[in-house]
Amino acid sequence: MEGASFLRTDANTPVNIDSKSYDLAKRNVEHPDRWAFDAAASHLYLLMKNDSYARYLRSELYKEYLNGTKKR
């Protein structure tokens, strides 16, 4: 399964998830089904919602974007 390459310790672009979600996803890869990555996806969503998105809204990149659209 291709998604498993993001869970390897030597992955080029590993995902940053908690150990519980990581272990569950690793086990699910051995016997994959459509819900194999749900725990990891939920954890990533919460990280993005509670941390990354808020930082993005405060970022200079986002402020520049807003200023660019207001000038039009």
UniProtKB/TrEMBL annotation:
Transmembrane segments: none annotated. It comes from the Eukaryota. InterPro entries: RGS, RGS6/7/9/11, RGS_sf, RGS_subdomain_2. GO terms for molecular function: GTPase activator activity. One of its GO terms (biological process) is negative regulation of signal transduction. GO terms for cellular component: cytoplasm; neuron projection. SUPFAM superfamilies: Regulator of G-protein signaling, RGS. Keywords: Signal transduction inhibitor. PANTHER family: LP21163P. This is Regulator of G-protein signaling 7. It comes from Caerostris extrusa.
